[in-house]
Design goal:
By secondary structure, the protein is α/β, with parallel strands linked by helices. About 40% of the residues lie in helices and about 15% in strands. It folds into 2 domains: about 210 residues, YjeF N-terminal domain (Rossmann fold); about 260 residues, Ribokinase (UDP-N-acetylmuramoyl-L-alanine:D-glutamate ligase, 3-Layer(aba) Sandwich), CATH 3.40.1190. It has 18 helices and 18 strands.
Length: about 475
């Protein structure tokens, strides 16, 4: 797992480290890393380094100092360096002096011949969008941008960009990744993130968020062993679909079938449709007749009337782990007495998109604002559930406060039925006995990967995403 730390923890760690090293050490380490990456970008994009032109956008404080020192190092490689000082009276004095000694120029506009712009406008202490004149300056940039630590104008702890902000091709960050690099618009605006070691690791402590690597998913995903049979690997129950939405049942069930080598039982009015598409599934007309399962998925296409309410109440009363999605979330929001059917010790995973989140969060007074991590944490604590908040960056929070983020690489999953596929994956992992928080995170990873594989550069429907699940699992294992 890769750790992600909030700015509060990063600043505290930096202060502890700076107390033990000579003044200016961390800035020069960071700046050297920026310069090295800038040189690599120039070589990749223009075929060379010497003789190329870089413009520094320099704000007040240490972020601007990082940019100025980076310019100093770039001058050593014969790069023409211009510095545009947004607040000349507050520019970092030592960095500015070093750039001038190296032959850098102070300018008032971005030269049209610039090969690369270095964004050193604001750092981790800044919040809110860029203001004039920086906003107008950034809007006119046509050259690729390398951001120092984070793209200016994006909130460092939420990834939200609520006004003018930098969109970087590359971001060079120091010591560790911050939430801006993995959340929401910050993920997109950061571009390719490169981490520079400045000696901070020993001071950071436990991360605030984690991001799964393929190896984490591969190590967690259940595979059959020599002593396994269809029952020992987990039996997943699917309570989904209706006469109006039989496709939800087919998609959810299919994802569970392809996720593991165990067994899937379907219970609902779409039994005929499920059997026709997935003959290996044991399909019955009701939850009462489903037989023994190890976990349930309830809600996709279920309907929000009396019949759906009765099904969800029965599932919650079974005392088994449950993934509740779609109509199931709406039913919980509009029928709070359903919660009484659940044993509080039994794991429940809620998988809302933004509108569903608003429905179920309103009764417990949780608001979904720019800070999606805080909102997911709060709802998880209030409901005693694992909450998977869907979005370009999927956030998974558990009642203990653990948070996992799955940053997307594309938006192909924004299609009807995609969420049903995710629910089936989660249900299969719950049935296999995986920790619900980790099950939700691994399912989100495979789901996103399956979407990318199914799309292959063009929109793909949810039925194709289901079909790509095995290849997504192989991808985590390094087999494709």
């Amino acid at each position: 797992m890769r750790g992600v730390w909030t700015t509060e923890h990063v600043k505290a760690a930096e202060e502890r480290l700076m107390a033990r090293v000579p003044a200016g050490t961390l800035m020069r380490r960071a700046a050297f890393g920026v310069a090295a990456r800038a040189a690599a970008v120039l070589a990749e994009r223009t075929g060379g380094v010497a003789g190329r032109r870089v413009t520094l956008l320099v704000g007040a404080g240490n972020n601007g100092g990082d940019a100025l020192w980076a310019g100093h190092f770039l001058r050593r490689r014969s790069v023409a360096v211009d510095a545009l000082l947004l607040e000349p009276d507050r520019a970092h004095a030592q960095g500015l002096a070093a750039l001038r000694r190296a032959g850098g120029r102070i300018v008032s506009t971005v030269d049209g011949r610039t090969d690369l712009v270095v964004d050193g406008i604001v750092g981790l202490s800044a919040h809110g969008p860029l203001r004039a004149p920086a906003a107008e300056l950034v809007a006119g940039i046509t050259a690729p941008v390398l951001a120092v630590d984070l793209p200016s104008g994006v909130d460092p702890d939420t990834g939200a960009a609520e006004g003018p902000a930098v969109t970087a091709a590359v971001t060079v960050t120091f010591g560790c990744r911050k939430p801006v690099h993995v959340l929401g618009e910050g993920l997109v605006r950061s571009g390719a993130v490169h981490l520079v070691d400045i000696g901070l690791a020993g001071e950071l402590g436990a991360p605030d968020l984690v991001v799964l690597d393929p190896d984490d998913v591969a190590a967690t995903w259940p595979l059959p062993g020599p002593r396994d049979d269809k029952y020992t690997q987990g039996v997943t129950g699917i309570a989904a679909g209706s006469a109006t939405y039989p496709g939800a049942a087919v998609l959810t069930t299919g994802a569970a079938v392809l996720a593991t080598s165990g067994m899937v039982r379907y219970a609902g009015s779409a039994a005929d449709e499920v059997r026709a598409r997935w003959p290996e599934v044991v399909a019955t007309g009701s939850v009462a007749d489903a037989g023994r399962v190890q976990a349930w998925v309830a809600g996709p296409g279920l309907g929000t009337g009396t019949a759906g309410r009765e099904v969800l109440g029965k599932v919650l009363g079974d005392g088994l782990p449950v993934c509740v999605d779609a109509d199931g979330i709406t039913l919980l929001a509009t029928n709070p007495e359903l919660w009484d059917a659940r044993d509080p010790a039994v794991p429940v995973v809620l998988t809302p998109h933004d509108r569903e989140f608003a429905r179920i969060a309103d009764p417990v007074r949780v608001t979904l604002g720019p800070d999606r991590v805080a909102a997911a944490r709060a709802l998880a604590a209030k409901t005693n559930c694992v909450v998977l908040l869907k979005g370009y960056s999927t956030v998974v929070a558990d009642p203990a406060g653990r948070v996992l983020v799955n940053p997307a690489h594309s938006a192909w999953l924004a299609t009807a039925g995609s969420g049903d596929v995710l629910s089936g994956l989660i249900g299969a992992l719950l049935a296999a006995g995986i920790d619900p928080w980790l099950a939700a995170g691994c399912a989100a990873w495979v789901h996103e990967r399956a979407g990318a594989l199914a799309a292959a550069g063009a929109p793909a429907p949810a039925s194709k995403i289901v079909a790509a699940v095995p290849d997504a699992i192989r991808s985590a294992r390094g087999l494709v």
